[in-house]
User: Fold these one by one.
Assistant:
Number 1:
Amino acid sequence: MDSAAHRGVPAWVRLDNAAKIYPAAKTRGWMPMFRVTAVLRDDVDPDALQRALDAALARVPLFGYRLRRGLFWYYLERQRRTPRVEPDARNPLLPINLTPSKGFLFRVRYFRKRVALEVFHAVADGYGASVFLLTMMAEYVFLRYGERVPPGGLVLDTRERPQPEEWEDSFPRYARSVVHPRGEEAAWRLDGTPDETVHLHVVTGVMPTDRLLEAARERKASVTHLLAALLLQALLKRKKGTRRGRNRPVKVSLPVNLRRYYPSKTLRNFSFYVNVPVRSDYADYTLDQLILIVKSYMALETLEPLLNARFSANVRSEQNPILRAAPLVVKDLVLKFMFRLMGERLMTCTLSNLGQYDVPPQMQKHIERLDIINGRPNKNPLSCLAISACGVTSVSFSRTIRESEVERDFFTGLVELGVPVTVEGN
């Protein structure tokens, strides 16, 4: 990181607007984290991986910052050390030690043919983490096989200097004065038998992307619409016959990448959420009806003026003079309360589809697919993430209860649509 200090990289940066809630919301046993994984064709060379991490960190120094407490806000402070790659653990995504002696807000782990990047959400969203991982893997391919991967898309050139726009907070830059904070009805919560350990159950379905696209197009839907409808169908089936929360809607929360709407190059958090509700007391829905509900709701809620008015409300709250003047201990209490009030309580399950990632041919020779999984949820026992690359789509469920009916029904629904699925678990 010494070389980065001479490239205009700031010694410290504020947390972005979305990240401010994560340090306050975390607890001793829980931290909002996620994991992006590259599944390789050969076993990992740890020495080459370490050198690739060093090069990627010099290019994307944002991941080298550590979290510090200020008098009024948390902030990120640049470090001059670099982390070490480490063997993977049987139980992924345990909370990161944030003490000053540790400090890094991410891990790079490896096991056989797998390289995993685990990230504390206060640093970046799935897009930013994917850029860091693929930039690192491009350097790894060069160091291991001597083949230079041309930069472009999600692959940054490690020979270039870091760019200031990559660590900007894009929320206040694109926020406008018109705001629309919207209250929502609490969602039905999935019940189950809690796992007595902290073990995170991960179930991943791997399928050919072209077959999944074909199934979606047959129903005049996008892949996200189809996956969300299948997930809603599985959750509604589970809700049937239960009494707790029977009057509450089942909601699937769909993150929206705001880079689709604004010319932002930030690698930090720049996403917003739309919670799609379905009331089971109205009727039993067919899959096509659920697809129509998801499409129609998303078409309205993802209009740029509506999205902007909603995330601008968060920016306006942050700029409130009373909140700004409050010491950090008071802000922590307020943000923790807001997270409980407006966080997982408003959704039954998250479905985040990062979409299709174009991996350069030079990398496809050495990478079979990408996976992405969520860390242990705080209250809701299930979350779902999807990513497509190298002709393969990976859909992963993270679960903290023993029952696996939702995943089983979800993947069975895909198979019934003609999409072959290979299921793996941890």
Number 2:
Amino acid sequence: MTGSLDALFAATVLFVGGHFALSSLPVRLALINKLGETRFLVAYSIVILVVFAWMAAAFADAPVEALWTPAPALGWLPAIAMPISIFLMVCGVTTPSPTLAGARLDDPGRNLVGGIVRITRHPFLNGTALWAIVHLAANGESRSVILFAGILILSVGGMWHIDKRREFLYGADWGPVLMSTSVVPFAAILAGRTTFDWAGIGWWRVLAAVAIYLALVGIHPFALGVPAWPGLG
């Protein structure tokens, strides 16, 4: 199940395809009708986590085959960009958002367009897209191309897919969300359609992202055999 590029490719295709298949409206609605929304979300999460674990193990065990030699300066891209990526992902999983699984626009007493959502309504997927882009640029070997190309496709396609699903489910009620937020970070703020909301983000998310980043820097050479910072170790 691991130890080859074929295994990594199969795991990545299943991880990416599984997300799109299980979240597509025909499949999702059919399973929710059969299982209920809570059981569906639990089952969905378990399946995705199992496949993710397989993909991660397959990546770690896959042979390293050079496809091209990136410029040395590109090796610093992940070190510089990953704090931003992790910050977006931390905000994405800790901030009420109209694009989160299970979120409802009519939830009473919840502000779904505050904090990081003012910057982008897809903070987590923008974070994973940035993670994929900088690692694709910095690594010229086959296993990285397979993994990070898959993550990038899932991230960019996922933003579009979520927006289309929300538009179908909420109709005209989705319009105000589109008008006051953006997919591209800061686009809605720069266009004057919303304002920056630092209070809704808070310093604790910044500190959490820094702590996670430093932990990953420490783990990186042991888990993947290469330092997170070029020339370190």
Number 3:
Amino acid sequence: EYDAVIVGSGPNGLAAAITMAREGLSVLVLEAAFSVGGGTRSAELTLPGFVHDVCSAIHPFYGSSPFFRREPLEKFGLEWIHPPAAMAHPLDDGTAIMLENSIETTSEGLGFDGAAYSKLMRPLAADWAKIAPQILGPFRFPHHPLAMARFGFNAVQSARGLATRFFRGDRARALVAGLAAHSMLDIRRSPTASIALVLAALAHTDGWLLVKSGSGQLARAMATALQSYGGKIETGHKVQSMSDIPSARATLFDLTPRQIVQIAGDTLPGRYRRQLSKYRYGPGVFKIDWALDGPIPFRAEGCGRAATEHVGGTIDEIIQSESEVISGQHPECPFVILAQQSLFDSTRAPEGKHTAWAYCHVPHGSIFDMTGRIEAQVERFAPGFTDRIIRRHVMNPADFQAYNANYIGGDINGGIMDWGQLFTRPTWSLTPYRIPVRGLYVCSSSTPPGGGVHGMCGFRAARTALHDMFNIDIEI
């Protein structure tokens, strides 16, 4: 019998396993695929020598995550790349809005809105060390109530409300809209301002980082960390029922509610099972990876300083794109999140060649081909882009779910993150990681704080299991 078995080896599953193995427990990770990583894998999706990130590509949360601060992966060989700027947002006039690593430089690029941006972001950046642990977990009375109150006053708004309240110009408003659109929600709704503020704060504190040689290296470093503490990993082990799981004092599921019901349904209390069955999933994504004959020829010079690009134009265009997705439509001009890792990492492509990674939001479970619309958006701001495409690889929501069963309908966030599920993931509970069956826990992004490569869902679930089953308490 193991002390703990973790089902699923995404960043949260591995974080849970590392946290428990570090306490001297016997830990086994079961993974259905033949490699660990979940959303942090890399592969030659287009052509030999072109390394693409299958899912996550840019990792803003790494430096702020209490789990990764406790378990730095650099000692296990992980190398990070810090692009000169966090993000560029090209516009039709040939310029780009730059989210720089410093508040001052970002403000300078926003013209007459620069002072307002500085006023908005300086207190948040100054309080970030107090705020980050609070927002990377379930709702609790804050340890630093004044800092959280300052953040919350603006965070509870819609992104459109925040943008129009603080800024008069199109540039600053577009910046806020692009950041908020990562939420996969209608940015006219509360609390989408929170996503914009968090991502901006991460740019100004830790930066938006990428992993040298691909995001798969992050998964490999986590696996190495686990094994250094004596933990074991078994790949190619698909769990379809509780009988597929070896006996353990604690079992943690890095899975979404639908899968937990399928696997453990008969052992779950009826009320809890019904609650999980009502869990809501959000929009899907349509993603393209490109092998390119050269860098993307963005008109705006600043785009060459950032690994991440927000390709979508003005705040009104982004609002229209995201609201159409929420209403079940496929936007003609989608908001595209694009990464050009090979500009800063020569290991990603053969000499003189490049890779790029991009996705847009689409309705849940969509099978519509967005290739042409995404490429038209990039071409709009980078004339000649399509002439540089050597090969493309596309994934629609069905492909994502086939690749990783956690991505139900192409939802990469483990469930929609609106007010109804922001703090009640997967159900309303003061201890959302605990399943009401002794020894069973949820450690996936369907628990607080939700999507993103931070490991905190797994870390917090492991802390709960350690307290309940082993009388071990660890600090954050």
Number 4:
Amino acid sequence: MPISSTVDYIPVMDEFLAHWGALPEPLKLPEGETAVGFVEFTALRVELDVAKTELQRKLNDLEAARVHLEQARITGGDRIAEFNRRIRAEFPNTPGLSRLPAVPARTAGRDAFLDAMDDALDLWNRVNALPPGPVFTAPLLLRGGLSRDQLLAMRVGLDRAFTQRGAADAAVFSQRLVRNLLQDRAKSLMILYRMKIEALHAPESFQVATLPRVTPLPGSTPEPVALTAEWNEEAGRAELTWTASEEPDLASYQVRGVPGPEYSAEDETLMATLPPGGPRVWHSIAGLAVPGSAMSYKLYVRLATGHEAGSAPGTVTRPG
């Protein structure tokens, strides 16, 4: 199967290694001032596999950081709104206590949240400094006994969550570059391998006739199918269903996924390969173990020619 996506590199490299290992004589490929043989190409295959696994781990870390930040935003925003309601109720028309912090939107950035929490902490200090009165006696406590010190700790945690989300995003970007460089090198070597085999052997030879392909032959792109992706609360898992492909040259369906609420083809990983005539349903809990986590999916139609088409993405978010 030729390369149509990042998920194809390792299987196609395996096809080339099988062909390479069956040659009657050792073969070397030029690469700069060095030579690449079967052993070196095998090592490259292992290195790429490790890099792809590490990228997947970092994508999972990024999704975990996103969920943690989202939950911290929700909690922080709710507490600021609760603080404002309490101040309005306890101190209506009280000089110096009428300027309340702005409640940030749930998708607001670091500054909006930290500035609002700083305003709340400053106002809380002034409230706690008030003398005892007939209605209120300091210190002010919110629902559940939340104190000013606890809101301060919440601010520190929220600040850390923003930092962790940024660091996780940078780690993904860096690891993606490593993987891409290895993929580019592997693809160049496989193209060169084909050129050398075709130069050394006759067109009708077994070696040329069995050469793996790097890219698909010219041909038509299949029609995509319609994907439905939902969370099954009773079973506690994501469930995918799709319409049947009418392509006569259909080889398989592929389920591919990306951690998070947005699908990116360059980060997709193969989650299942399913036969054309089997049930058009697939389910999994992978990537959704934590409440609030999300997985995005595409269902690919794969032809025997190597051409493919992906559905529109579907996202499943675990409630919580």
